[in-house]
Amino acid sequence: MISIKDMSKKPVRLTEGHRLCAGCAEPIVAKQILLATDKPVVVANATGCFEVSTSGFPQSAWEVPWIHTAFATAASTISGVEAAYHSLRRKGKINEDIRFLAFAGDGGTYDIGFQALSGAIERGHQFMYVCMNNEAYMNTGIQRSGATQRGASTTTSPSGEHIPGKREFPKDLTKIIAAHKLPYAAQASPHNWKDLISKAAKGFEANGPAFLNIIAPCPRGWRYDSADTIQMAKLSVETGMWPLYEYENGKWNLTGETKRIAEGKMERRPLIDWLKAQGRFRHLLDPANKAVVDDIQENLDADWDELLRLTKL
Amino acid sequence: MKRLAMNGDQAIALSWKQIDPDVVASYPITPQTIIVETYAEYVANGEVKTEYVCSESEHSSMSMCIGASAAGARSATATASAGLAYMWEMLYIAASMRLPVVMTVANRALSGPINIHCDHSDSMGARDSGWIQIYAENVQEAYDNSIMSFRIAENMDVRLPVMNCLDGFIVTHAIESMAPLEDDVVKKFIGDYEAIHPLLDVKSPHSHGPFDMPEYYYEHKYGQQMAMENALDVIRKVSEEYAEISGRKYDFIECYRCEDADYVAISIGSTAGTMKQVVDDLREEGHMVGSIKLRLFRPFPFEDVAKMLNGRKGVAVLDRAMSFGASAPLFADVRSATFDNDSRSPTFSYIYGLGGRDVGVEDLKRVYYDMENGTAETVNYLGVKL
Predict the structure, then answer these.
(1) Out of 3.40.50.970, 3.30.70.870, 3.40.50.2300, 3.10.20.30, which CATH number does the structure's domain B4-246 have?
(2) For residue range A198-232, what is the model confidence (pLDDT) as tens digits?
(3) Candidate from A55, A83, A115 with C-beta closest to B56
């Protein structure tokens, strides 16, 4: 593993001066990903916060070739770039060994871009897809997505007198992607940068499609102080709400804090710590909504047991 | 050049084989499917070097063509009807990114009701997407247009995507005698692909498809319009060069027995072929009639249309598509083109052939009889059963 000192000497591929919010996890995640390879990288970006904030014409924060086409198209666009690469390599017009990377939010991945992603993985393009998961459509003003947690209050699943926030659980996308039997898929968190970068390094060299689902806390949407993003990411992992694991060539492995908890080396923090820390769950602290909290707890425990079972197979 | 018997889809596939695009990304849809099936055989037999990608949807086909084109690859695809509709969002993006993607459209009615047969509602719906649109009358023309499309799209004064349209089933599936060019002649005519700031030039990183605020968006749209205007000259020059290698000369519009015609009908695609028979029959009966085939719909050849339609006793505009609640697409543009003519001709809209409704010689004669008898309405629904 490369040291943080050595990483600081690497060329910057996403510059400062972009327009993302203070406390946004996305540029932190992107920088960690881009540090995970020294090879040339071409990036495709779905529409979303990350795209609009890094590309306002005539400026660009990107020091690597970058393309944005539409919301649903990060995976299909990078598929086309990668297809061009193979064609032009075969014809001897390109000699470099290039890596292909797609960035999208959870809306662009779990929802509108899901079909394109599934297709690209099935076709076996050599690319790494990174979902920066902030658990809602933040760019359009915090609407619920297929990644939004049960009970979360968003602008399209507001907590009201009759309905206490989002009624559904998020889909378990990482496992759905793993069901494509691709070479590499993982969940990561920016607070554990060593774990994230080592997963990204594996993804870049996976010799086929790779998928990273990365928790990317959003101070605006989650309602917490913008200084606490990394703490919030850590809390997501330590409560078990965002377990760190990887699916590598058919094998499931726990990593980071999740592994330590499973091995009994540290305690899993109570769910309530995570709920209390975020304004989007404030209504769940009302005793009238205890049933929702119990429901989330039950689901968390079931998912945790399922993950442990998979990793012991 | 040896003459061959083939259908329109096979002719398109053959033209692609001779061009050997770097990337073909496509999704099957009737009546285009023979193109991608035939091309898949070329790939499977090692007859082309193309990276051939079978997408999971037309939306992704077009996204892949955009990605591949921006990466520095010559890219092509084919679709029809609902497939074109599914690409809608990406059509505008391909054009605005000024990527010379070439797409064959096998014209087919849009759902609903679902219908697999020919009309022009699919590509007419995409008329404002920023794509150049060329329409073929027959198999030979579809093949010729396909080859010319790449040269037009890739011209540095144009740099726009091109839609190469042919009538579903009528041209895509009917076997006709046609004369392809030799492979080396096509390759020389097309030349090497010249990419602009390709993504794969990693030593010179560029951002493609950035976010535009109001102070820039308008200028980018204006640029597209200028490119469309430039395309008129470029298409004319490419057609002239193509005539030199093929002996077949194409223009924006083609006139059949129009010189002394009092009554003229203008149509698009295979119907223009039927119209030649209609005109010949009526001329034999002594009627002074002619027919115009419009080959280029975007950019619209306003000057040519205006000039040719000046001072006629009647002009019928045949649309194989509708614009519900307004004028049919070709009619609207023809009327607009002729509005400032010195001697404006009475102009009538004829809607026909929707969803593959067969329209024959006798049906089309009615268009001229109506005009001669003064019974043509402003808008007429040819052959509708009420």
Answers:
(1) 3.40.50.970
(2) 999 999 999 999 999 999 999 999 999 999 999 99
(3) A115
